[in-house]
Write a structure and sequence with these properties.
This protein has helices at 127-151, 196-201; strands spanning 166-168, 202-208, 226-228, 232-239, 251-259, 262-263, 270-272, 278-284, 289-299, 308-318. By secondary structure, the chain is mostly beta strands.
Length: 319
């Protein structure tokens, strides 16, 4: 008996082919007849039972994988050019950017060439300019104030410092009348009226550029009413000892210098400790004026707050 699958001889009584392992059908003397196999799975893989090795599978001629002939497989098609370079599909080379924005070759509507980035210019500081302008304005203001002050008819800064001096006369000197008095009746820069009693005590007022330190009288040729700026101006006067008595009450004499109606010096009264007969006060003007004046007061207090106007002299100060 031979195997119907591989054709190998099957020994009697065997249930399977010793070569391929196929099942051997039942004997033909089966009363019910031969039954068809219940399952068929194709050739059974060879088993290693120590029998003859299973021959290799048959070779099929004409196969595209063994004949070495070109096959019709779609994977082995010989294209004349790359399928991705067909007309209508223009792809850039693999080593080029898809969109070259620097050359304007990007997608439609892409911006053109862009300039290189540069930082915005720094704003220049104006602090130095502002400081310079402020300094210039301050200098101009100072110069203008100096010029304006020099044009004013008022006193200068130096004039505000009291420079008046008063000297009492030595005892026993008899006042002598002098000429050139500059008293002007009913013309006082302060507006105060002349007191008759005070005017009877202080007499013979006049102005001079020099005084004799021994007699306290004006030097000859120095009496006048016109003076220069920065030149001493002396106001001299006589006292009538018969009109006052220092043993009964204290007495002072004060002189106030004016430019127009403005007093330019602080009060510096002279106290009489004896029956004096001559005295003088002095001052300097640092600005010119045509309305210089000096008022002479008779007082009974050290501040001369109760002073009575006795005499007035007028003069002019020129450059």
């Amino acid at each position: 008996m031979q195997c119907r699958v591989c054709g190998a001889p099957i020994p009697p009584g065997a249930n399977a082919c010793p070569s391929c392992g196929s099942a051997v059908p039942a004997s033909s003397d089966n009363q019910q007849g031969q039954l068809p196999p219940t399952a068929y799975a194709g050739p059974t893989p060879p088993t290693n039972y120590g029998s003859t090795p299973v021959p290799p599978p048959p070779s099929y001629g004409g196969g595209p994988y063994q004949s070495g002939q070109p096959s019709s497989s779609p994977y082995n098609q010989n294209y004349s050019s790359a399928p991705y370079n067909q007309p209508g599909q223009q792809y850039p080379p693999y080593n080029q950017p898809a969109n070259n924005f620097q050359q304007g070759g990007g997608y439609p509507g892409a911006p053109g060439p862009q300039p290189p980035y540069s930082p915005p210019p720094r704003k220049k500081s104006r602090v130095g300019l502002i400081i310079g302008i402020v300094a210039l304005l301050l200098v101009v203001a100072c110069i203008a104030s100096v010029v304006f002050a020099s044009k004013l008819p008022g006193v200068s800064q130096t004039d505000s410092t009291p420079t008046a001096v008063a000297t009492k006369t030595p005892v026993g000197v008899t006042p002598t009348p002098t000429t050139g008095s500059t008293t002007q009746a009913n013309s006082t820069p302060s507006g105060n009226p002349i007191d008759p009693q005070a005017a009877s005590i202080i007499i013979h007022p006049q102005t001079a550029s020099e005084v004799d330190k021994d007699t306290l009288e004006p030097k000859a040729g120095t009496v006048g009413t016109t003076f220069k700026i920065n030149q001493p101006i002396y106001v001299t006067f006589h006292l009538d000892p018969s009109k006052y008595d220092i043993t009964k009450e204290q007495d002072w004499v004060n002189v106030r210098f004016y430019r127009g109606s403005e007093s330019i010096l602080k009060d510096d009264p002279l106290q009489l400790t004896k029956q004096e007969t001559v005295g003088y006060f002095g001052a300097k003007y640092y600005l010119s004026t045509t309305n210089g004046a000096a008022e002479i007061y008779w007082c009974h207090t050290s501040t001369c707050s109760d002073g009575k106007l006795a005499q007035v002299v007028h003069f002019t100060v020129t450059d």
